[in-house]
Amino acid sequence: MADAGVALEIADLRSSVEGMPILRGVTLRVGPGEVHALMGPNGSGKSTLANTLAGAPRYEVTGGEVRLGGLDLLAMSPDQRARAGLFLAFQYPVEVPGVTVANFIHAALKARGREMPFVEFRKRLLDKIRLLEWDEGVARRYLNEGFSGGERKRNEVLQMAMLEPRIAIMDETDSGLDIDSIKVVSGGVNSLRGDRLGILVITHYERILRYIQPDFVHVMYEGRIVRSGGPDLVDHIEREGYDWIKEEIAATRGGV
Amino acid sequence: MAEATTELGLGSDYRYGFHDDVRPVFKARRGLDAEVVAQISELKGEPAWMRDFRLRALDIFLQKPLPLRSAWGGDELGELKFEDIYYYVRPTDHNVQNWDDVPAAIKNTFDRLGIPEAERKFLAGASAQYDSEVVYHNINRELEKQGVIFLDTDTALREHEELFRRYFATVVPPEDNKFAALNSAVWSGGSFVYVPRGVDVKIPLQAYFRINSQNMGQFERTLIICEPGSRVHYVEGCTAPIYTTDSLHSAVVEILVLDGARCRYTTIQNWSTNVYNLVTKRAMAYDNATMEWVDGNLGSKVTMKYPSVYLMGRGAKADILSVAFAGPGQHQRAGGKAVHAAPDTTSTIVNKSISKGGGKTTYVGLVSIAEDCPRCKSNVKCDALMLDDRSQSDTVPYIEVEEDDVALEHEATVSKISEEQLFYLMSRGISEQQATMMIIMGFIEPFAKSLPMEYAVELNRLIEMEIEGGLG
Fold first, then answer.
1. Is the domain of B427 the same as that of B297?
2. Is residue B331 part of a domain?
3. pTM of the model
4. pLDDT (0 to 100) of residue B76
5. Looking at the partner chain, which of B426, B442, B445 has a beta carbon nearest the beta carbon of A79?
6. How many CB pairs under 8 A join A and B?
7. At residue B440, does pLDDT exceed 50?
8. Which residues of B touch A107 (CB under 8 A)?
C-alpha cells in the first residue's frame, strides 16, 4: 500500500505547565521524510513542546493549532494521537512492573489495528532487537524495570521501529548515553528514515546530529523558535554555543 | 463403617452418602444443635468416631466467642446469623435454585467467560452435577497406577478409613478457631489426596474435574498427605463466579508435607458477593519439605483467609503468594502465617491487593520464629494498589521472634495507578482502559504467572470485566 506519509504542522502553539507559560508561540512544519533538529539551551521549552504535542498530563495548551495529516491533533487524547501516527521517544521513560517489553509492543500494535500472527511478531521483534545490538532476552523483561539509562533509550527506539509511526519526536534521546550507545541508537533511527517518516530530534548537544543528520535545524529560546536553517547551523552552535543567540535576541529587544 | 452402610442398605454405587428411600424423613432445617450434627453423621453412614468428633467440635464451636476485636477476625462477623443457616443440605436439594432467579450479572459473566451451558447451571447452583465424569475417570486411572488417591473427602472416609483417621484434624484441630470448629462439626465434601513416597504427580490435580462430587459445598474439608519425596500440585475453585444463596462458606484445608516432599495448593475464589468466606488453611512442612500456597480472592462479601505453614523440620520452606481484589461492598482480609519451629527454615509471604469502588483490602500476616531455631529467614512483601480515593487498604503484620540469629525482611507499599505510567502506555496508542488493565495485570504478574495457563487467562478476563465496570 502506497503511503506518502503525513505532515506535522504547528502554528503559534502556546502552552503552560502549572500556570507557568512555557511555549510562547511555536510555529514549525515537519513534512514526510524530513528530519528536523530542534536545539536550544536548557529551559528553552524543547521538552515542553514534545510533551504538549503528545498530550502529556499537566501540559495545558493555551493557544495555537497543531495538525497531523490535516487532523486537529490537540482535540485528540494521547492514544488517539498515537494511532494517528505520532510517536514520542521519551526523555525519561517510566517503569511499568510486570508488563513485558514484548507484550507491551504487541498490545500497542493491536491497538493500532496491526495485530499479527505470533510467529511473525516474534521474528520482527527479534530482528529489531538485533538491529539495536541488544540481547534477545529484553523481550521478556518488564518495561524499563532495572534498565540502565542507555537501555531505556534503546527501548524507545525499539518501540519506534516496531510501531512505524509517521511523525516521531525524539526528546533528548542522546542524553545520558555514551558515544557507542549513541551510534547504535542513531543507526536504529537511520534505518527507519525514508521518504515517509518525519522526525523531530530534540537535543541540547550537536553530538547525535553527527549520526542522525538533519535536513533542517531550529533553535529554540524562551519558548519560541528564534533561528531556523540548514545543517550548518549545527556547526555554528558547536563552535560558539548558545550565547550569541541570547545576545542577538537581547540586542533586538533593546533596539525596539 | 461397613456395618453402618449395610444397616442403611446402601450399595457401593452410593455416591452421596444418603439415599432418598432410606431416610425420607430428613428435612433440611436452619440452625445448629447436637441433633443436626448427629443427623448429618448418620445420613452419611459415618463411623462412630467421626460422629463423636463432630459432636465434640460442636461444643467447641458453641463455647468459642467470635473473634470480633481481632485483626484476624473483625466486627463484620457480628452480622452473621448462625441460626438462619442450613448446615447440611442434601446434594439433590441443591437443585432447588431456579435458573431464572440467578442474577443477570452472574449470567452475563458466564457469557463473557464462555462457560459451557452445563457448567453454568452447576456454578449457579441450578444443577447439582456437572458431568465431567469422563475426564475425571481418565485422570484417575493414571493416578491409580502411581498409587495416588484422589477422592472427595466423604468417599475417602469410607474407602480409606485407617489412613484418613491417622491424619484427619491433626493439622487443624477443632480447638484452633471458631470456624475450624464449625467446619469440624458439619463438614461435607472437599478433597482427599494421598501421594505415596517418591511419587511425582505431573499433572495438577484439579477439584474442578470432579465438580460433581459436591466439592464446592459450604463446609468442605480437604486433607492432603504428601509422603516423603513426593510432589503434587492441587488446584481448587475456579475463576467463574460461583453463585450461591448460602451466606457462609467455611472450609478447612489440612496438608502434611513430609520430608523432602513438595506441595503447591492453588485457589481461585470467586464467590458471589453475599458470601462470608472464612477459611482455615494450614500445612505442616517437615525436613527439607516445601509448601507453596497460591491464593486468589476475587469474590465474596467478606473473606478472612490466611494460608499458614508450620515449618516443623530443618530446611523446610514456605511460599505464600496471595492476591485479593475488593470491589464495592467487599472486604478482603488475606495474608499468611509462617511459623518457624525448626532451624534453617525459610518463608516468603507475598501479598498483592487491589481495591476499587470503595472496596477494602487488609493484609494480616504473622511471622513467628521460635527459640533455638537459628538461621531462619523470612521475607514479607505486601503491595496494595488502590484504583480510586474511596477505596481502602490496611496492613497488619505481626512478627514474633524469640531467636537472635535470623534474617527478617518486611516491605509494604501502597500505590495508585500513576499518571506517568498511564500516559506512557497511551502514548503508544493503547486506550486508557486497556492501559489501566495492563498496569493492574502487571501488578499481579507474580501471582498470575504461578497459575496454570487456563486459570491465568480467565483471571485476566475477569479482572478486565471488573475494571470495565468501574470505568464506565
1. no
2. no
3. 0.81
4. 87
5. B426
6. 81
7. yes
8. 430, 434, 438
Q: Are strands A35-39 and A198-202 parallel, antiparallel or unpaired?
A: parallel
Answer yes or no: do B446 and A78 touch at CB < 8 A.
no
Nearest to B370, CA basis, from B314, B290, B292, B307: B314
Measure A132 CA to nearest chain B CA, in Å: 20
Same domain? For B292 and B439 the reply is no
- Same domain as B441, residue B301: no
- Rounded mean pLDDT, B122-128: 51
Closest alpha carbon within chain A to B443: A98
Is B252 contained in some domain? yes
At residue B10, the pLDDT reads 35
Q: How many domains does chain B have?
A: 2
Identify all chain B residues contacting A105, using CB atoms and an 8 Å cutoff.
428
Query: What count of other Cβ atoms lies within 10 Å of the Cβ of residue B464?
Result: 17
Average pLDDT over residues B107-131: 57
Q: State whether B294 and B422 are in the same domain.
A: no
- Supply the DSSP string of B343-371, one letter for each residue: TT-EEEEEEEEEE-TT-EEEEEEEEEE-T
Are B437 and B296 found together in one domain? Answer: no
How many CB atoms lie under 10 A from the CB of residue A130?
A: 11
State the pLDDT confidence band at B86, using cuts at 50, 70 and 90: confident
The verdict on a CB contact (< 8 Å) between B424 and A142 is no
Domain boundary (B305, B335, B365) is at B305
Cα-based distances in Å from A226 to A9, A25, A52, B131: 17, 11, 19, 77
A98 vs B420, B426, B442: nearest CB:
B442
Note the pLDDT of residue B117: 61
Indicate whether B381 belongs to any domain: no
Does B443 contact A97 at a Cβ distance shorter than 8 Å?
yes
In a domain, B151, yes or no: yes
- Stretch B234-248: mean pLDDT: 70
Q: Which is higher by pLDDT, B176 or A1?
A: B176
Q: Which of B467, B469, B464, B439 is nearest to B113 (CA)?
A: B464
What range defines the domain where residue B34 resides? 26-305
- Are B438 and A99 within 8 A, CB to CB? yes
Last residue of a domain, one of B247, B273, B305: B305
Name the more confident of B338 and B29: B338
- Asked which of A43-47, B102-106, B389-393, B402-406 is least confident by mean pLDDT, the reply is B102-106
Residues of A in contact with B424 (CB under 8 A): 90, 93-94, 96
The percent of residues above 70 in pLDDT, for chain A, comes to 98
Residue B193 bridge partners (DSSP): B150, B224
Say whether A229 sits in a helix, a strand or coil: strand
In this prediction, residue B245 carries a pLDDT of: 63
ipTM: 0.96
The grid coordinates listed for B186 are 458439619
